[in-house]
Design goal:
Blueprint (H helix, E strand, L loop, with lengths): L17 H9 L1 H7 E3 L3 E3 L11 H41 L10
Protein name: Type I restriction modification DNA specificity domain-containing protein
Keywords: DNA-binding, Restriction system
């Protein structure tokens, strides 16, 4: 255990794909299974269920999980940039530095 409620998992890459393991642990089935709700959100990875698949299947699933994580990160970054742009444009309109385009020519 790395700290209070922090676990370090070091899977043997010849036996289990690390991206596969991470994806399975983040999956809704395991979240329902090993999450306890009280006054705080806690996860007990020792209760997680990880399917035993051949390593090649794990690697294929792991790559899909990795790509989904990258996609989710890109979506978060896009949302952050959109919020920043909205703040800048709102500020520009409010202080008179920007004017809306006239419609109807």
């Amino acid at each position: 255990m790395a700290g209070r409620h922090i676990f370090v998992l070091r899977p043997d890459p010849e036996r289990i794909d690390p991206y596969f393991l991470a994806g399975i642990l983040r999956g809704s089935r395991n979240l329902r299974h090993y999450t306890s709700m009280s006054t705080s959100y806690r996860v007990d990875v020792r209760r997680a269920e990880v399917p035993l698949l051949p390593i090649e299947e794990q690697r294929a699933c792991g790559e899909a999980f990795r790509r989904l994580e990258a996609f989710q990160s890109a979506l978060r970054r896009t949302a952050e940039l959109g919020e920043e742009m909205t703040r800048v444009v709102t500020g520009g309109l409010a202080d008179g530095g920007l004017r809306p385009a006239r419609s109807g020519g």
